[in-house]
Design a protein that fits this description.
84% of the residues lie in helices and 0% in strands. By secondary structure, it is mainly alpha-helical.
């Protein structure tokens, strides 16, 4: 794995962790689109890798299903998981200093942006008759 890839994965982990700490999101909403759009993983690979990051406490059985079909990137997941912890800590510290209205605004903007990206990607796939 290149230094650039490790840096990008670390950035994704920190960002997802911070958003998780700030507004209670991070897994599917941040990690999956970031892995698809920034690192070129397939949707299944991104979902499997995201579940790996979140699996430590609860989701181990879902990760096993993705792993059995070859859709978990363990190396990516380990780098993101280790930096996610730091990002969650920093994000929770930051959000507790912001007014609730700002936190709601950040959350709403992020959700709208991610929704638009996923809808656009899905529409493009439909137009190309992809499964």
């Amino acid at each position: 794995m290149s230094l650039q890839t490790i840096f990008l994965l670390s950035f994704i982990g920190l960002a997802a962790g911070m958003l998780s700490g700030m507004v209670g999101i991070g897994g599917g909403v941040v990690l999956v689109p970031a892995l698809v759009f920034m690192l070129g993983l397939t949707q299944h690979q991104a979902q499997g890798t995201s579940l790996f990051v979140l699996s430590m406490p609860v989701l181990i059985l879902a990760v096993v299903n993705y792993w059995q079909t070859g859709n978990v990137n363990w190396r990516f997941g380990l780098v993101i998981a280790s930096t996610f912890i730091i990002g969650a800590f920093l994000g929770s510290k930051l959000t507790l200093r912001l007014p609730e209205a700002w936190v709601k605004l950040i959350f709403g903007i992020l959700m709208a942006y991610v929704s638009f990206q996923l809808i656009s990607a899905g529409y493009t796939g439909i137009q190309k008759n992809e499964p």
